[in-house]
Amino acid sequence: MHTDLSPHLHSTECNLIIEDLKKCHSENKFAKFLGICNDLDRQMIVCLRNERKTRQKLNREKALEKQKRVQQLMRE
């Protein structure tokens, strides 16, 4: 199961891939079950994973900054 695929949650690069995948699924009603859209699905998964890793890295940095601020306040 994928995360929410709403356009406002993702980068333009990922949104293009998501749109292409949705288009592939709508154009190939039965062939999608045979794997015709799998390449686009893999590209989307990689793109979403990269976005998630970027968010995790930023959140980690923010948490470390907050911990440092709290420790300084505790010392004072």
Automatic annotation (TrEMBL):
InterPro entries per the UniProt record, alphabetical: Cyt_c_biogenesis_Cmc1-like
Origin superkingdom: Eukaryota
Pfam families: Cmc1 (PF08583)
Subcellular localization, as worded in the UniProt entry: Mitochondrion
GO cellular component, one term: mitochondrion
Keywords: Disulfide bond, Mitochondrion
Family (UniProt): Belongs to the CMC family.
Record-given protein name: COX assembly mitochondrial protein
Species of provenance: Anopheles christyi
UniProt lineage: Eukaryota, Metazoa, Ecdysozoa, Arthropoda, Hexapoda
